[in-house]
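During the no-cost extension, the postdoctoral fellow (Dr. R.K.) reprocessed legacy sequence entries with the updated structure-token encoder. One reprocessed record is reproduced below for audit purposes.
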Amino acid sequence: MIVRPEQPQALDDPGPPIGTAPTVASWTTDAAEWNLDGTWEFRWSPSSAHQHNEAWGSIPVPASFVMPSLDRDAAPAGDHGRPAYTNKWYPFPIDPPRPPDENPVGEYRRRFPLPDPPARAELRFGGIEGAAEVRLNGVLLGSTRGSRLPMAFDVSGLLEADNLLEVRVHQFSAATYLEDQDAWWLPGIIRSVVLRARPVGGVRDVRVRAEWTPSGGMLTVLPELDSALEPGADVAIEIAELGLTVRADQPTPVPDALPWSAEDPVLYTLRVRTATETVTHRIGFRTVGIVDGVFQVNGVPVSLRGVNRHEHHPRLGRHVPPEVVTAELLMMKRHNINAVRTSHYPPDPLFLDLADRLGFWVVDECDVETHGFGEIDWRGNPIDDPRWEPALRDRVARMVERDKNHPCVILWSLGNEAGEGGNVAAMADEFRSRDDSRPIHYEGDQSSAHVDVWSRMYAHPDEVAEIAIGVEPALADDALDARRRAMPFVLCEYAHAMGTGPGGLTEYQDLFDAHPRLMGGFIWEWLEHGVQVDSDRGPVTRYGGDFGEPLHDSNDVIDGLVSAERHPRAQLTDLAQVFAPLRVTIDGAHLHVVSRLDHTDSSRYALRYRIEDAAGVRDSGPITAPPLPPRGRATLDLPPVPPSAVLTVEVVQVGETAWAPGGWVVSRVSTAVPAGIAARRRGAAPARRLTLADVDLDPATGALRRLGDLEVTDWRVMLDRVPTDNDRHAGWDEILDFSYAERWRLLGLHDLRTRLVSIERVSVDGPDGEIRVRTVVGGPAVDARVSCRWRWRAVDGGIRLDLAVDPEGHWPAWTAHWARVGVGFSLAGEGRLEWCGRGPGPAYPDLGQAATAGWFAGTVAELQERTVRPQEAGARAASWMRVEAGGRALEVGLDTTSPRGPVNDPAITVRPWSEAALWAAAHDDELIPDGRTHVVLDLVRAGVGTARCGPGVLPAYRLEAQPVRGSLVFFTPDANGDRHD
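Re-encoded structure tokens follow.
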């Protein structure tokens, strides 16, 4: 007998939803189904008390109803709300369990015919963000809670030939206090709506335990059948590919089965059949365990090279169409990512289906975060309030029951940033009572009393190194300390990929590779959460605060390896290099290869080499190597390389896969660029020879105005950069409580003023002539300055500038002072760049692992690394460059003699807009080319770090005030006659 509620659930009720059916596993069935996605009628009101007088508009389902892309249809008579972004703040007073009175409501309705309506059926919602009341043909079915969790209603006896489905979604409720994830607030029906017939005598649910043992597979299938079936009724269970029949409720050996892993995701088709229904699962045999503090799958250690993934679409909000989800996972595979944490809620079931098929390790996270309570010292936190225990247990139950049969899921996570309290133990108990085959994760439990793996976020590499060897600081409780020391360790979040960054990826991966206790980690994060808005210039991207929210976290939501449109950022290519399945290093005449594969040999990859000099490729071919076993290593011989050439070794994929064609370059490494301008220059030496008479300096400032017939403007020393997103925050590891951007501003580096001390011309008409300039450069209102000595000489047909920069006055006792030491200037006309150095992508001292040595070219427009919030980006490591602009050309050789170390990384940045324009712009679409080519030549530069969350620039990549010495050699070839094609 179905008992339906008489009234909707009160919005201030902290309990689980009412009227819903128990959650079951995701599977396919031959029973009739009707997908109700599509265009629904819709209207919106600013609060529950508002009386609806508006006309009905239309809206796609699934989608978030506040998205700007829906403006035209969603509310023809008025508003339909707007996105709002906060990182951790609740957008209303914290008064649990009460929601605010200003509580927008979206009303949906859908009419659908059923010529032959089934007598028994379930109505399934994949997810409704907010708190919904659901009615079918005027009958209240129940209320939903848990925005990213499945909900089902028994609608047996209610279906007619013509049906009306109504859903009323309140944006806020008591449940909102459990859903304060770092993301936009985007209410609506966000996942598919399906009506499924339930035949008498059908399959209610199936629980599968497919384990891998040393002797093969072991399968236990526990079907839950319709209560209408007679006890002992026949049920047939089989593995289609193996022709194996399995008895219900009994462990069955499957000796012919192959194991499932992220490297080799072997799946089998399991069918469970009664007289009236057949359901199908795709299953994989694998066993998860922890042995001697090491995380293992199928009896061997596993290393997680992962990302955190939110669900977001720039036009649809929380709904991500299937084709986009598929494209995401294929892109992850192409970039060597093997693991995903579903931050911070269970994903759409399609994601897990694809992860099973393509091969990913998945941390499945419960839809729980109460981060905003941390802003009030966790007072009233639901995690420590018994009133919320039923709702929290319910969320665990629904996630586990839906996802329990997916082999890709290797860890359950209680949630994220929800603090501590008695309900952590309750949730852990609920997990274990339903599934004891997977370990439990929760970063908020730092005592690790209720979890099976120790998790941290954004720990400094030095801390991770201590944890790796078990010398981390002790807990106060000896028993808990001993328990935690016996656990594997995972970084559930690290390396904040926001804007230009993250720096320091290599340091983390080196630790993961070296220490068995370290499981690996998950980059924050995969995807930027930009929202598209249609403008006169086409779609533009917006972030927090752009929709009038009084409380917001600005562009913190723009943090990802790919854009909201799924265009890869440069740092994704760098991550692919760091995560490469084969770690390859060149050591003189030898190539060292180390496999990072855990379960398979390296036969799916091949090695090839290329020898290239300034004139082009001189030699190439395969490198013969036997397949390496899992985590094996080998040293191979390399062909001889002339001193004027670069050797590049590539790891390529053998054969086609679902995500990449045969020959796909998985990773590459190279030797360094050759020494000397002659070896680096691409093309013939310029025919025109420069003399000191071609050097035109401003007599008032000492700045270069013209080099031969090439006009140069805005010549200046540069010590700062337009701050990256990471520059705007203080690193968690630094004593100072203000960011690099604030330091540079306090020192006046954004507004440097030059005082000319002297210009001295020495024998300028002779072969040893020089022009010596001395300037003093500093910011206003401070006594921190630099002395610059500029020495101009004619050499080898060009003009050599030796630049010496020395700090003077008072520079504070900080760990870093400068972003760079370089020279900036501007050329007339839009440009093109060729360079010898590292490329083709950008590189900074702690970023750019994918940039290898060679010769590269592109237009200035092509070389821009666009960021949603404009900032420093796009520098190319270079020792020789040629820039063409306005029909003229400038060639420069770069060399830095001191200081040594990683910051000694000469580079060129070219832009079609000025630094001033970059400073002024708040959004990328505000940057308009000004018809000039703006150039920065760096002698030394700092890394970018990951200070928005985690450590700032690591010490080796910081740039303190210190003497800098370097040279720039200029040539002015004819842009047409001397160009190399």
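The chain has twelve helices and 58 strands. The chain has a mean pLDDT of 95. The remaining legacy entries will be reprocessed before the final report is submitted.
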